[in-house]
Amino acid sequence: xxxxxxxxxxxxxxxxxxxxxxxxxxxxxxxxxxxxxxxxxxxxxxxxxxxxxxxxxxxxxxxxxxxxxxxxxxxxxxxxxxxxxxxxxxxxxxxxxxxxxxxxxxxxxxxxxxxxxxxxxxxxxxxxxxxxxxxxxxxxxxxxxx
Length: 146
Fold this sequence. Notes:
By secondary structure, this protein is mainly α.
């Protein structure tokens, strides 16, 4: 029985593909949410102004989410995109009232955790521009590791 379980678990172990699926799903979510903000910019700007922010912040956040989502999907500079999108979700949680409790922010918390994880792990094998070194994890070192 142990032999069968080990064979099946090895068959399904593919960390690069798993990271790609996570990147793809998060990227699509950010892209769609940013695109919806861009298509409803007057309404979204009004919401941001009700939070005490200038209206142009809505356009900036929409742009960040669209471009960041594309970067995650494509696997281009994913560590940078992960940091920026994690900060976006952190700001969303605080601006909409962190005191409202866990359940009010669980979607933002999940996207924050996924974005931060991608920022720490990198793009993985399935990407247009893999920036991290396989030896040290450094960006753009090309195996030099110094």
